[in-house]
Amino acid sequence: MKKITMASISFLCAAAIMLPDHSIGTAAARTNSGTHVIINNQDLAPQDVLIKNNQIFISFTEAKALDNLTFQWIHAAKQVTAKGKDTRLLLTINKTTALKNGKAVKLNTAPFIYDGKTMIPL
Q1: 8 Å CB contact between 51 and 28
Q2: Spatial distance between the Cα atoms of 116 and 36, rounded to a whole number of angstroms
Q3: Backbone conformation region of residue 45, classed left if phi is above 0, alpha if psi is from -120 to 50, else beta
């Protein structure tokens, strides 16, 4: 029984060493040519779409493709606001809490700045 346990542990350790390193998954990566984001029938340019931690982000400037919304960048606070008819959304760079109509909501992933662009999660 002890030999089987030791063999199993050895096998698992060897398998773990041979598995690919997924630490790069935490890094931001431009989408490949097979990934497309379409907002209101507008195909976003690949340089304005980013995948980080399995979350799709678009550049703040490309979010303007969303109709009936106005956007504002607040440099001093590193915040982005999006205002619609009945909704106001406030996102802060590197924070996973946003404000929707003044109420805190939890985001899966925080907005961030990449290559000088503000990237916001979809």
Answers
A1: yes
A2: 22
A3: beta
Question: Which pLDDT tens digit goes with each residue over 24-53?
Answer: 334 445 555 556 788 778 788 888 888 888
**For residues 80 and 91, is the Cβ–Cβ distance under 8 A?**
yes
50 SS3 class: strand
Give the span between the Cα atoms of 76 and 41, in whole angstroms: 34
Element spanning 56, H or E: strand 55-59
Order of strands, edge to edge, in the sheet holding 29-30? Answer: 29-30, 49-52, 55-59, 117-121, 112-114
What angle is formed at CA 22 by the lines to CA 21 and CA 27, rounded to 5 degrees?
Answer: 125
Cα 75 from Cα 21, distance rounded (Å):
37
pTM of the model: 0.65
